[in-house]
Amino acid sequence: MQQPGSTLMDDQPKQPPAAAVSVTGLSKRYGAREAVCAVSFEVAAGRIFALVGPNGAGKTTTLECILGLRRPDAGSIRIHGLDLRTQATQAKLLVGAQLQAASLQDRITPRQTLDLFGSFYPESFAGEELLRRFDLESQADAPFATLSGGQRQRLFLALALINRPTLLVLDEPTAGLDPQARRKLRILIREMRAEGRTVLLSTHDLEEAAQLSDQVAIMDGGRIVAIAPPAELIARATSLCRVCVRTAPPLARALVDSLPHMLGAVYSDRGWMLDTPAPNLLLADLVRRADQAGAELLDVQLRRPSLEDVFIELTGHSCSGGEPPGEPS
C-alpha cells in the first residue's frame, strides 16, 4: 500500500550514477599504424584510474581522444553520461587537463596565467587560492622560464583545476621530475580524489601507478590487456618471491641447495638471491642454518612480485620497452 506523501516515482529503482568516463570500442589509426585498437574501459567517479604502458602504447592518443583533441576513427566516449560526439561543449566544462607537452610563454607569470585562464570559464577558482594550494606564492610573479620542473608541473596542475572540474586528465604528470617534486605532485593528486574529483592519468612508472591508483589498465601495442586494482593484478603474478641474503662468510652452495622451499639460487657480489613460494618458511630455516654454520647476517631483503612483474608476464617485455630483466650478475 502506498504511504501518504509518497509518489510512484519514489517506488522506482534508482539508476546508478553515470561513470565519470566511459570509453567503448575506441580506435585511432595514423596511416598504416593502429595507435589505439578497440579500447574499452570505465572510470568510476571519485577514483584514480591509471593507464600504464611504455611509450607508444597508445596512452596519450587515448587521452587526447577523451579530451576531444583528436577524433577517433571508431568507438564512443562519454563523460558523466555526456556523449562527446554530440555534447562536447557541455562535457568539456567538466574536465581539466594537464598535457605531457604543455608549455607557456616565457615571460608570463603564474599569477597572470591563473587569472587569464580563470577568465575563460563562468566558474573558476581564484588565482590566489590556487597559488597558495600549489605552493606557488613565492614564485607568483616570476617569469615562467625561471620556474623549476616541479614548479611548472604544479602550475599546470593548478591550471587543470582552474575551472573546478569533476574530472582531471593528466598525461605523465610526474615525468622528468626529481624524487621530491614527484612526491609533492602525488600528494596533490591524492588531494584531488579526496575532494571527490575523478583522476584519469597515464604513466609508464608502474610503482607510481601502484601507489596512486584505485584501478589500473595495462596498455600495450594500442590494446588494453588487463584492468583491475593494483593489488589484484599483483596477486595474479606467477613470479616467485625473492630473498636476498648477504652473510660473512658467504653461505656455501651445499647449504643453500639444501634449504626447503627454495626453487632457485644465484650468487653475486650482493650475496645469495633465492627464489621461493614460501618466504617466511625459507627465512626461518635460513637464519637457523646460518647460525649453525657460524655465518653472520649482514643484510636480508625480501622482494615480492610487483606490477612490473605482472606487466612482463602479460606483454613479454618491461614497461620501459626493453627486454625482461635477466638473472642478476
What does the secondary structure layout of this molecule look like, with pairings?
Blueprint: E1 21-30, E2 33-43, E3 48-52, H1 59-66, E4 74-79, E5 82-83, H2 88-92, E6 95-98, H3 110-118, H4 127-133, H5 149-161, E7 167-171, H6 179-194, E8 198-203, H7 206-212, E9 215-220, E10 223-228, H8 230-235, E11 241-248, H9 253-257, E12 264-268, E13 271-276, H10 279-292, E14 296-303, H11 307-315
Parallel strand pairs: 3-8, 3-9, 6-7, 7-8
Antiparallel strand pairs: 1-2, 1-4, 4-5, 9-10, 11-13, 11-14, 12-13
Helix pairs in contact: 3-4
Q: What does it look like?
A:
This protein has 329 residues and is α/β, with parallel strands linked by helices. It folds into 2 domains: 21-235, P-loop containing nucleotide triphosphate hydrolases (Rossmann fold, 3-Layer(aba) Sandwich); 241-304, Alpha-Beta Plaits (2-Layer Sandwich). 30% of the residues lie in helices and 27% in strands. The protein contains 11 helices and 14 strands. The strands form 3 sheets. Strands 6-7-8-3-9-10 form a 6-stranded mixed β-sheet, with helices on both faces. Strands 2-1-4-5 form a 4-stranded antiparallel β-sheet. The radius of gyration is 25 Å and the shape is elongated. The N and C termini lie far apart (77 Å).
